[in-house]
């Protein structure tokens, strides 16, 4: 038991030393001017995929879908917006949300829209004109 007290004291001392704040750098160095804050937005990443907007006609119901290129789609239908995420499907790409809205993209411009308490709709779409 004689070794316990010194070991405990050293452990507490090291813990307190690790928690002490680091010294702030001095700003008195005239050779390094303070960094100016930039108000310009960061340039867009050329490697990032551009969002794609598809206007669907789902058996008379207009649906606008904005695919962000990162596995999500924002769907505007009947005055409501839904953000859907990618889910694995046997064919095509399936986008779902927790409320039960599903947009199942099949092929380049065809899809199936499923919503709770509404009949399923077969959709045909066309890309929106580039802005």
Structural summary, described in words:
This protein is mainly beta. The chain has a domain at about 50-125: C-type lysozyme inhibitor (Lipocalin, Beta Barrel), CATH 2.40.128.200. About 10% of the residues lie in helices and about 35% in strands. The chain contains one helix and eight strands, in the order H-E-E-E-E-E-E-E-E. An eight-stranded antiparallel beta barrel has the order 1-2-3-4-5-6-7-8. A hairpin with a 5-residue loop joins strand 4 (about 80-85) and strand 5. The chain is extended and about 80 Å long.
Entry summary:
This protein has 131 residues and is mainly β. It contains one helix and eight strands, in the order αββββββββ.
Topology:
Elements: H1 4-19, E1 52-58, E2 61-67, E3 72-77, E4 80-87, E5 93-96, E6 102-106, E7 110-114, E8 121-127
- CATH class label of the domain at 52-127: Mainly Beta
**CATH topology descriptor of the domain at 52-127:** Lipocalin
Q: Uncertain spans, ≥5 residues at pLDDT below 50? A: none
Counted by DSSP, the helix tally is 1
What is the subunit organization of this protein? Answer: single chain
Major β-sheet profile = 8 strands, antiparallel, barrel
Measured on Cα atoms, how large is the radius of gyration?
Answer: 28 Å
N-to-C CA distance: 77 Å
Order of helices and strands: HEEEEEEEE
| Total DSSP E strands | 8
* Beta-strand percentage range: 35-45%
CATH homologous superfamily label of the domain at 52-127: C-type lysozyme inhibitor
Shape: extended
